[in-house]
């Protein structure tokens, strides 16, 4: 069964802001990454799924329930982590978690306890005294504790330190293993690259591409900016068999792109020369997608 089905959804805020004719399908048991730069329309799409806003046209369903007309039915099966959590500040984390459980009629707090331990959270503090990361952990407990079939997570690792981010990835793997359907938004490719079965990219309110994991997992290129000490080394490097993306004589700098299987070759080439610095450049989201679509597929618009 399709877990989340978005068909031709449009929410136009004017001035080209909003989402326009968005269609996406997330199948049962699938982890789906929703990627896009700031302001691209990720939260707007998610707010429509939650039934918070009415689309001007199109339709979204979760487990075949209409997101706008049947949000209560959906709630029973849904865990939601908002991008910006607005908690009542005068409660402690424990009170809030208990309150959220009561609202859901949840008796069994075993999973909540397990999550609190996993994320090393002390929920006894007042929420207004909590750091952003601690609040995020409380949000994660509330989103996952009732073991929902569907999870919608809006920028879930915001505020988490690297250790906690990797715990979060572990949690996603556990939930996926149990057959949960997960929609996860992010503006960081690396964040969802390792967890998602599919990734959709949204830009200026439109879906510009959808990729399956077998496509993006095979994309392993690295880009390095290398600075040489001496002109002859800088010049001779250009005769080596590497893709030079940029050559700057003034600074004796080259930008080299290599496939992961050619890394050793690059190291050998550099060992012969006097290098003053080498820096790996992270691909931007768009670079990843643009590279992927170069040559192979042409549905990039
Ligand atoms: N209620 C609203 N009224 C008017 N414009 C809005 C409203 N909500 C969102 N927008 C605009 O719609 C666009 C999409 O916003 P949205 O919050 O969906 O982006 P996002 O992809 O979630 O971004 P971010 O990564 O920054 O959270 C933005 O230009 C935003 O300013």
UniProtKB/TrEMBL annotation:
<feature type="domain" description="ABC transporter">
    <location>
        <begin position="4"/>
        <end position="229"/>
    </location>
</feature>
<dbReference type="InterPro" id="IPR027417">
    <property type="entry name" value="P-loop_NTPase"/>
</dbReference>
<dbReference type="InterPro" id="IPR003439">
    <property type="entry name" value="ABC_transporter-like_ATP-bd"/>
</dbReference>
<dbReference type="InterPro" id="IPR017871">
    <property type="entry name" value="ABC_transporter-like_CS"/>
</dbReference>
<comment type="similarity">
    <text>Belongs to the ABC transporter superfamily.</text>
</comment>
<dbReference type="InterPro" id="IPR003593">
    <property type="entry name" value="AAA+_ATPase"/>
</dbReference>
<keyword id="KW-0547">Nucleotide-binding</keyword>
<dbReference type="Pfam" id="PF00005">
    <property type="entry name" value="ABC_tran"/>
</dbReference>
<dbReference type="InterPro" id="IPR050763">
    <property type="entry name" value="ABC_transporter_ATP-binding"/>
</dbReference>
<protein>
    <submittedName>
        <fullName>ABC transporter ATP-binding protein</fullName>
    </submittedName>
</protein>
<keyword id="KW-0067">ATP-binding</keyword>
<dbReference type="GO" id="GO:0016887">
    <property type="term" value="F:ATP hydrolysis activity"/>
</dbReference>
<dbReference type="GO" id="GO:0005524">
    <property type="term" value="F:ATP binding"/>
</dbReference>
<keyword id="KW-0813">Transport</keyword>
């Amino acid at each position: 069964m399709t877990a989340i089905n978005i068909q031709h959804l449009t929410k136009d805020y004017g001035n080209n802001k909003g989402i326009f004719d968005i269609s996406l399908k997330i199948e049962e048991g699938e982890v789906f990454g929703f990627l896009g730069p700031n302001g691209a329309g990720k939260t707007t799409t998610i707010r429509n799924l939650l039934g918070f806003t009415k689309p001007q046209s199109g339709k979204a369903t979760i487990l075949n329930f209409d997101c706008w007309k049947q949000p209560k039915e959906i709630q029973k099966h849904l865990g939601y982590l908002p991008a910006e959590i607005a908690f009542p500040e005068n409660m402690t984390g424990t009170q809030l978690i208990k309150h959220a459980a009561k609202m859901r009629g949840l008796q069994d707090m075993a999973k909540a306890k397990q999550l609190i331990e996993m994320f090393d959270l002390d929920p006894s503090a007042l929420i207004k005294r909590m750091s952003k990361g601690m609040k995020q952990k409380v949000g994660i407990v509330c989103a996952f504790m009732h073991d929902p079939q569907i999870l919608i997570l809006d920028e879930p690792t915001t505020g988490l330190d690297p250790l906690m981010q990797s715990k979060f990835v572990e949690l996603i793997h556990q939930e996926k293993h149990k057959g949960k359907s997960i929609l996860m938004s992010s503006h960081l490719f690396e964040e969802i690259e390792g967890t998602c079965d599919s990734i959709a990219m949204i830009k200026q309110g439109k879906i510009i591409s959808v990729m399956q994991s077998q496509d993006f997992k095979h994309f392993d290129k690295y880009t390095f900016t290398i600075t040489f000490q001496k002109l002859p080394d800088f010049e001779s490097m250009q005769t080596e068999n590497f893709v030079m993306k940029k050559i700057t004589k003034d600074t004796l700098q080259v930008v080299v792109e290599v496939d992961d299987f050619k890394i050793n070759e690059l190291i050998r080439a550099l060992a012969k020369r006097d290098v003053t610095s080498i820096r790996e450049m992270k691909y931007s989201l768009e670079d990843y997608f643009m590279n992927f679509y170069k040559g192979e597929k042409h549905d990039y618009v």
